[in-house]
Amino acid sequence: MIIIKFIIGTIIGSFSSLVSIRTLRNESIISPRSHCDNCNRRLTPLEMIPIISFIILKGKCHDCKQPIGYLNLISEIIMGCICLQFSLNVNSIFTILFEWILLLISLFDVQKMIIPTKLIHLLLIIVVIQQLINFDFNLIKFSLVLLSYTIISGINQRYSWIGNGDIDIIWIILLKTNLNMSIISLFISSCLVIIFQIASKYDKKRPIPYAPFLFAAFIITNTFVKI
Ligand SMILES: [Zn+2]
């Protein structure tokens, strides 16, 4: 059962990276069929198997030897792991949905530093519906989160500390969890950014896409910290 969950996750992960790449190029998600971006050769069914195809092809197109890139592979592995927590209850399904949308947002952010507003709305809707189903929706908490969000995003628009999409994600995490969990998520994401800056050769002057770090921090906090 674990393997089936992982395989389904990798297929969703593969589809997610395709959606992000094609949307950013203003291409249709449905057609043309999956192909090599360099030589336009259609991929065979064997070359479309998540993770396995990357290993078989050694990360390169079979014909033109153009490197495939790691984005698709990383998306497949992460979504495979996310789907491992699937069980037949509403909360596990909503948590997977929430993390899937965070993955999609991260894919957009990594490629073009764009956080689509539609995905932010979807993330918010998922949280509110889950809370309503669980009879956990607290109007006072919602109002306080909304008020603090309005103030902070207003100040951020003036001083541009971080992207507005990042503020949206932080406040949706605050709405989904609580103040302690969201502060820990924020702290972990900042640590991850610092580690990334030290460990990688990323140009220090280039802005860093923050959504993937918030996504990773949320997964860590949600898995290991329960306050
Ligand atoms: Zn090719």
Please tell me about this protein's structure.
Helices cover 66% and strands 0% of the residues. α4 packs antiparallel against α9 (211-224), α6 (139-159) packs antiparallel against α7 (164-176) and α8 packs across α9. The chain contains nine helices and no strands. The mean pLDDT is 93. The chain starts with a helix and ends with a helix. By secondary structure, the chain is mainly alpha-helical. The chain has two domains: 1-86, no CATH class; 114-227, no CATH class. The chain has helices at 2-24, 52-57, 71-82, 90-112, 117-133, 139-159, 164-176, 179-199, 211-224. The longest helix is centred in the N-terminal third of the chain and has 23 residues, at 2-24. Bound molecules: zinc ion (ZN). Zinc ion binds next to loops. Zinc ion binds at residues 36, 38-39, 41, 61, 63-64, 66.
